[in-house]
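Retro notes - structure team

What went well: the batch runner handled both jobs without manual restarts.
What didn't: labels got mixed up in the shared folder, which is why I'm recording both outputs here explicitly, each with its sequence directly above its C-alpha cells.

Job 1
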Amino acid sequence: MAAPMNAQRREALVKGASKAKIKAVVNLAACTGCEVCISACPVPTCIEPFGEDINSRGVYVNFDLCIGCMLCVKDCPWDTIRMVPTPSVEGQTTSLESKQDQTALIFENLDSLDERVRKPLEGKLQSASSSTPS
C-alpha cells in the first residue's frame, strides 16, 4: 500500500515522474473499473477511479504522477493499460485526454460522470467531430 499523500511527498513524486520516459494510458473501451491497477500502483492518486455504475466506471492516470513503473500494466486483468513514450502525451494532464475509442460505452454516459472526468471526454468528442469532414 502506498504511503499517504502530502504536499512534500507530492512534490517529490512529481519531480521523479517528470523524468519518466514512459507513461500509462488506459483504454476506456475495455476498462471495467475493477481498480486492480490502483492497488498495484505505488504512487497515491496516480490512478484514480470514476463512475458509479457499470456503464460509467473506469480509471484514469494522472500523468504528472506516473513514474512509468509498469506495475499497473502487469496487474491489469483486462490488458487495458499500455505504456506510451512520455513525449506522446506532452501537454496532457491525464489519460482521459489521450486518444480513446469514442464508440466506448462511457461516451454514451457522459452526463452521469463528475466534471473532472466529463470535461476532458467531452473535449475529445468535440475535437473528433470538428476534424470529421462534412
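Job 2
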Amino acid sequence: MKRIKLAVLAAAMAATSLVWAQDGKQALIKQFLDFQRPGIEALARGLVTQASDPIAMAGSEYLRTQVPQEKRETLAKAADAELKKYFDDAYPYVRDKAVSAAPGAIGPILENNFSEEELRQLLAWISSPLAKKYQELNPQMQGALMKQVVADTRSSIEPKIRALDANVAKALGAPAGGSGGNSGGSGKSSSGSKSQKK
C-alpha cells in the first residue's frame, strides 16, 4: 500500500513538474513574441504594400508613356494620395491580425522545437544590444541590396516584362497592354512612389 501511495505521489509530482515546465515555456514564448512584434508589424506592412505595388507600377508606366509631361506631376500626386489612403486604411487592420495570429502560428513551432533552456538563450540573444543593432540595420541592408539589384537588372528585366505583357495579352486575345494595366483606360495610376510606406 505504501508503494502504491509513493507511486501515485511520484506521478503527481511529475505531472506538476510538466505543467510548470509548460507554463515556463509559454511565458518565454510570450516574451519572444513581444520582442518580435516590430518584425511582425514589418511583415504586415510588407504584405499591404506588396498588394498595392502592381497598381503603383502600372500607374507609373501609364504616366510615363500615356500622360503629357506637363500633367504628370499633378496626376502622380493625386495617385500617391490614393495609395497613402489605402495604406492608412489597410495597414492597421493587417497589423492587428498579424499580431493576434502570431501566438497560434509561431507559438507551436517554438514549443515543439525549443527546450526551455534554448528559449532562454534565444531571448538573451534577441534582447542583447548587438541583436537590437542588427535588427535595426537589417532593413537598411535589405533596402540597399534591393536598390542595387533593381538598378543592375532594370534595363534587362523591363523589356522582358513588356514582352511578357504583350505575350499574355496575345494569349488571352486582349489588346496589347491590357493585361498589365498600361492602357489609357486606367483610372488608378501612380507615380510609383512609396509614400504609402511612411
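One thing worth noting from job 2: Residues 28 and 103 are 12 Å apart (CA to CA).
We'll revisit the folder naming next retro.
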